[in-house]
Amino acid sequence: MEETFVVQALSALAQRNRLQLFRALVVAGPEGLTPGALAEALAVPGATLSFHLKALLQAGLISQERRSRNLIYRADYAQMNGLLGYLTENCCQGQPCTALPVPACAC
Amino acid sequence: MEETFVVQALSALAQRNRLQLFRALVVAGPEGLTPGALAEALAVPGATLSFHLKALLQAGLISQERRSRNLIYRADYAQMNGLLGYLTENCCQGQPCTALPVPACAC
DNA sequence: GCCATATTTTTATGATCATCGAAATATGGA
DNA sequence: TCCATATTTCGATGATCATAAAAATATGGC
């Protein structure tokens, strides 16, 4: 995993609106959510929401699919797991650590 | 875990210098590293380094201890694990997921 | 007490980010 | 084709961040 990608992904998550957005999508699971549903859930104006969804999308943390008139956003669990794993890589030079279970979400 | 803390921690990690700093401390393990060693390892001026160490410290991701003339910085593994767990909390409403192993580093 | 070393704080500058109203665009149905 | 709905892009504003030189501070040894 690229350091540049990791920084971008962490930047994307390091903001209240976007963190809530991402978590909502993580909880929603494979069905995902539309911008409309998210805007209502988080009580954020459409333009602001779109701005933040774009950031998460460009960071590769969520995906977008058109479903007729709606868009559907979903969390990208693979990227998320890669990101989490990166932070603990080579922890303690392997020495006194419990073998690092990379956090897995297999939705 | 507080959302405010999570955002601050993610912000702290969402920067190249700080990410490298944190990872270096994660790899270093319980012995930690001094600012001098870190400055040399990352090739960053002292003032810049100190600025970033402070951010990680205030975010609770690392700890500081004075050891005579040197300071020693260490990664805070508990906070890191809490942070990682937060991102996957309530994933997919519990449904089709492999039970979430929270990533553990027990250094 | 005084010096050398290690580290932090101050300060200034330029760069990037968050917000959201208004305008623009896409989509499906009539 | 034309309208209504869903969503995004544009644009302006204020706020926050990264950098690093220079000055300030802490520590231990002499």
Notes on the protein architecture:
2 copies of one chain form a homodimer. Chain A has 107 residues and is mainly α. The first copy, chain A, has a single domain, classed as Orthogonal Bundle (Arc Repressor Mutant, subunit A). Chain A is built from 5 helices and 2 strands; from the N terminus they run H-H-H-H-E-E-H. Chain A has helices spanning 3-13, 16-28, 35-42, 46-58, 77-88; strands at 62-67, 70-75. Chain A has a two-stranded antiparallel sheet. In chain A, helix 2 packs across helix 4 (46-58) and helix 3 crosses helix 4. The two termini of chain A are 21 Å apart. The model of chain A has no long low-confidence stretch (mean pLDDT 90). The A-B interface holds A 3, 6-7, 10-11, 13-16, 19-20, 22-23, 26-30, 77, 80, 84-85, 87-93, 95-98, 100-107 and B 3, 6-7, 10-11, 13-16, 19-20, 22-23, 26-30, 77, 80, 84-85, 87-93, 95-98, 100-107. Chain A binds a DNA duplex (30 and 30 nucleotides) through helix 3 and helix 4.
List the helices and strands and how they pair.
The structure is a homodimer of 107-residue chains.
Chain A: H1 3-13, H2 16-28, H3 35-42, H4 46-58, E1 62-67, E2 70-75, H5 77-88
Antiparallel strand pairs in A: 1-2
Helix pairs in contact in A: 2-4, 3-4
Chain A binds a DNA duplex (30 and 30 nucleotides) through helix 3 and helix 4.
| Radius of gyration of chain A (Å) | 15 Å
Helix content of chain A: 40-55%
| H-E order of chain A | HHHHEEH
Record the strand order, biggest sheet of chain A.
1-2
Termini separation of chain A comes to: 21 Å
Let me know the largest β-sheet of chain A. Answer: 2 strands, antiparallel
Q: How many H/I helices of chain A?
A: 5
- Could you report the average pLDDT of chain A, rounded to the nearest whole number? 90
**Which chain pair shows the most residues in contact?**
A-B, 41 and 41 residues
Please mark out the parts of chain A with pLDDT under 50 across 5 or more consecutive residues, or reply none.
none
Give the overall shape of chain A, derived from the CA principal axes: elongated
Which second-level CATH architecture of chain A applies? Orthogonal Bundle
Which CATH class of chain A applies here?
Answer: Mainly Alpha
- Percentage of β-strand residues of chain A: 5-15%
Overall strand count of chain A: 2
Number of domains of chain A: 1
Q: Determine the CATH topology of chain A.
A: Arc Repressor Mutant, subunit A
What class, by secondary structure content of chain A? Answer: mainly alpha
In the CATH hierarchy, what is the superfamily of chain A?
Winged helix-like DNA-binding domain superfamily/Winged helix DNA-binding domain
